[in-house]
Amino acid sequence: MIRRPPRSTLSSSSAASDVYKRQIVDWAPWPESHDGPPSGVKSIGRVFLMAWDSFDAAVDMMHEFNPRRDRANIKSRLEQQLMQREEDGKWVWATDPAIMTSAQLRAKEPASVMWDAVASVPCPTLMVRGELSDVVDMAQAARLARTLPEGKLVTIQGAGHSVVGDQPERFASAVVPFLLNTVGQQRKSGL
C-alpha cells in the first residue's frame, strides 16, 4: 500500500511501511493523450451493464467474451458474481452500485494524478501484464515499471486482462518467487 496524493485510484494506507512488496495485475494509468479508457475497459464496462434471461445465457456470453477460459471456469466464477433480480428474473452482476460509480469517476481522473501516485510507491512492485491484454498495452506497462521506484514487469503469455484466470499456473510462477523473496528479506532483516 502507498501514501498518495488526493484523488488517486491507486490504493493507499496509513500503514504503508507495513507493505514489503506489491503486485499490480494488468493495470496502469491511462496514457495522457487518451480519448477515454482503452477499448478493453470500455468492453468491460458494457458487460457490467448487461442483463441475461438465464444463467446459462450469461455463461455462454462470457465464454464468448473470454474464450481463453473454459466454460466450467466461467460458470464457477459467475455462480459467485451474478444474482437474479426479483422484479424481472434477469441475471445481473451482484456488484455494489458504489463500485460502478467509483469506476466512472476513475475514468475521468487525470492521468497525472495516477502517475504521481505510481512514482510514490515505496516498495518493490511487480507489474504483471497479460500478453493479450486490451486494457493495458505494452508501452503503458513498461512505463509503469519504469516509473515505479522499484518496479519490475513480467508478461504472462497466453493471458488477457484476466491474467489469473486465463493462465493461473504462469501467473503463480511469476508472482510466488517474487513474494517468497520478500519473506526471505524480512527474515534476514529481523522483521
Can you walk through the features of this model?
- Helix content is 46%, strand content 12%.
- It starts with 21 loop residues before the first strand and ends with a helix.
- Residues 1-9, 11-15 and 186-191 have low confidence and may be disordered.
- It is an alpha/beta fold and 191 residues long.
- The chain is built from eight helices and five strands.
- The strands form two sheets. The protein has a three-stranded parallel beta sheet with strand order 1-4-5, with helices on both faces. The chain has a two-stranded antiparallel ribbon with strand order 2-3.
Order of helices and strands: EHHHEEHHEHEHH
Q: Largest sheet at a glance?
A: 3 strands, parallel
Instruction: Give the number of DSSP strands.
Output: 5
Q: End-to-end distance, in Å?
A: 17 Å
Multimerization status: single chain
Mean pLDDT: 82
Total number of helices: 8
Q: How big a fraction of the residues is strand?
A: 5-15%
Overall helicity: 40-55%
Q: Which shape, going by the Cα principal axes?
A: globular
Which class of secondary structure composition applies to the elements?
alpha/beta
Strand order of the largest sheet: 1-4-5
Low-confidence stretches: 1-9, 11-15, 186-191
Radius of gyration: 18 Å
